[in-house]
Amino acid sequence: MIDRRIKFRHIQCFVEIAREQSLKRAAEKLFLSQPAISKTLKELEEIIGATLMERSRSGVTLTGAGQVFLRFAQMSLASLQQGLDGVEREGRQEKDRLTVGALPSVAAWLMPKVAREFAALAPNAILRIMDGPHGYLVDRLRLGELDLVIGRLGRPESMQGISFTQLYNEQVVFVVRPGHPLLAEPDLRRIAEWQVIYPPEGSAIRPLVERYLIANGIGDIANRLETVSGAFGRVYARQSDAVWIISSGVVANEIADGRLVRLPFDTGITQGPVGLMTRPDAAVGAVQEIFGIAVRNIVGAT
């Protein structure tokens, strides 16, 4: 049970001090005196029974306990702000909106679960989801058309000016329809005997696939069709003998349902990080904070 002695001012002061890393600057932001904000922090530490911050001439740093408490304090403030904003919008009959870009590797597998979790945490918010290749979505993020993007970490040059927070790792897989001739005698060297659905230039997984094939002695594949479209690939792979090279998240549901079969190739070296991409200069609103919580709840449960 929450100690009733903890007040909103305690949480607000603590979060602001952590953000500014200075009692003086935090006091100025909150229009308080430095002795007043220092007293508020001391009261919070006495109530909790732990030192949350270390003070020095150079500023303020979080202790281990402070780092743990900060995350939940920020979530509490974000939730409260969302509630206050929601009441205000209710009077104006407006709703929060969040526009999220989802790369194919998360659009089919992760986003439906995240959308349900987000709807439960923020029932009055409108979520807009846009899918597409890495370069397209990151460009939309830079232009401010997207609030954030979820997907694979791209090449260094494509991530300039973008903040990336890792959520989990994912690898590339080779999949075919049930009954495909290659399933009888799986051999990576034979994939060029059939058409290959291949990641196009600029996609996040293209360099990983190229390195993997070279490492296994596979040269240029002439008979290939380049796309990262999950909608196209799911239909085409099931209706043909094509071998589809794609991120595991794109086809996780199809593999689980038996509509597609993963070839038993060791693709561990293609593993790469999937995470949240944001603009570091953009202000993070309450609804975006709640979305981040929804993502982490789902990732942590899988």
Automatic annotation (TrEMBL):
Alphabetically ordered keywords of this record: DNA-binding, Transcription, Transcription regulation
Pfam families noted in UniProt: HTH_1, LysR_substrate
Presence of keyword Transcription regulation: yes
Domain HTH lysR-type span(s) in chain numbering: 6-63
Superkingdom classification of source: Bacteria
Family: Belongs to the LysR transcriptional regulatory family.
Protein name: Pca operon transcription factor PcaQ
Organism field: Ruegeria sediminis
